[in-house]
Amino acid sequence: MSQKVYKISLFLIIISIVIFFFIFEIDRFLTLDNFRAQQQLLLNYYYQNKLLTHVIFLFIYIITAMFSLPVALALTLIAGAMFGFVYGLVLVSFGSSIGATFAFLMARFIGHDLIKQRYNAQLTKFYKGFEKEGAFYLFALRMVPLFPFL
Q: Would you tell me the crossing angle of helices 85-118 and 50-66 to the nearest 10 degrees?
């Protein structure tokens, strides 16, 4: 299988997952209201199967972060309510970091060549600036979430 066919196939799979999420309205199951309605049932399951519940939640959070699905806030609050502050914090931290890493790798693997072909002149300027002031670029990228509208 050629590299191009592989990338197109992977891209179509990703699009299919996102479309599946919105067509079947899976986000309605990942809300705080639904959690409150099912809280006792979920907590009973959690007390009986702690490791499995952690793994399932971590997997769901990774998929959510990887595809940037709009339920991360609800899942974060659910993690705190279900697992407690410390375990919830650890699960959310690992899930969001792993999911963001996968999202980065997908974007890099699928879109890098297309973006490089289309915007080569702008990227050349960026790469030259990054070589000169790399530390400042990285600092600015890290500060953007703190000061998004300045």
A: 30
d(CA 141, CA 20): 32
pLDDT of residue 150: 46
Provide the whole-model pTM.
0.70
**Which residues fall within 8 angstroms of residue 63, CB to CB, at 6 or more apart?**
69, 99
Task: Give the tokens for residue 11.
Answer: 């891209």
Helices 72-83 and 50-66 meet at what angle, rounded to 10? 160
List the chain domain ranges. 3-118, 120-150
- pLDDT tens sequence across 13-57: 888 888 887 788 777 777 778 888 888 998 999 999 999 999 999
Contact 83, 54 (CB under 8 A): yes
pLDDT at 147 (0 to 100): 59
Whether residue 74 contacts residue 31, with contact meaning beta carbons closer than 8 Å, is answered with yes
Residue for token pair 């940037």: 68
